Amino acid sequence: MDVLKMIADERRRFADLVDSLTADQLATPSLCGAWTVKEVAGHLVSVVAGSDVVALKLLVLSGFRLHKANARLATLTARQPAARLAALLREHADNPFRPPIVGHPGALTDLQVHGQDIRRPLGLPHELRPDRLRVSLDFLTGGRAIGFTPKSRPAGLRFETTDLAWARGEGPLVRGAAEAVMLALAGRPAALADLDGDGVAILRGRLRAAA
């Protein structure tokens, strides 16, 4: 299993998606906070093609709050034309950058989750690969998904996927398609409607408390 190749392919697929969108679609609110579809694309570009100098300046201006700095960087990067964002994703598709702590599984998960942050509001099919979903599910339930999933979110729950032979944890059940389980673990309440089991209400309460 070569996670770097998975990441490169997801970047190229994301670039193809951005190229296919209209101006109205690019301006649509995504599932990721207050970001538009285009700003989500800007975030993914800034991860591999952003300026270190600009990133450091924004980090200082944000009081060294990483998430706030990342949000500013995404918004700044998204000011470029959509075609340029797509071109940069393709140009840097094979960038081997390894994020601190979360590593390459975190990078792959970032791409898959943000892809759904875009596709779900636009009503587009996800076409996610089962082997890549498995990597992200293992990552999100493995206790090292800093910035994605606090350890308290999956604690005491059992997660099962209906389209993959995958399950983790013990406790009240949360069950559904792998894509929906991944999004719920990553804090997207929109995916809860696609899940069932006694643990869904517990998970919903945790997501609400974290909002």
Automatic annotation (TrEMBL):
What Gene Ontology molecular-function terms does this entry list? isomerase activity
Q: Which Pfam families match?
A: MDMPI_N
Task: Give every Mycothiol-dependent maleylpyruvate isomerase metal-binding domain span.
Answer: 8-94
Keywords recorded for this protein, A-Z: Isomerase
Segments forming a coiled coil: none
Query: What NCBIfam families does the annotation carry?
Result: maleylpyruvate isomerase family mycothiol-dependent enzyme
What is the protein's given name?
Maleylpyruvate isomerase family mycothiol-dependent enzyme
Protein species of origin: Actinoplanes sandaracinus
